Amino acid sequence: MRLEIVTPDKTIFEGEASLVQLPGLDGLFEVLNHHMPMIAGLKKGKVKVIDASNKENFYEINGGVIEVLNNKVMVLAQ
To answer: Using one digit for the tens of pLDDT, what is the confidence trace for 64-78?
Structure first.
């Protein structure tokens, strides 16, 4: 899936990913390839990304919103 993690200042991650784990308002959740469309709020925490080379990356966010649509994931983070 195509993933973008964007803050007001810069793009933190842009590329292919096989898994994204996010700190949702009601707890951790994961998005995998071909996930159903959704929009969800995010709270402060770590975003875990497994990229195309199967490497785990972690990004700290202070909250935000995620949109999943047509195998594209957009994280608008603070």
So the answer is: 999 999 999 999 999
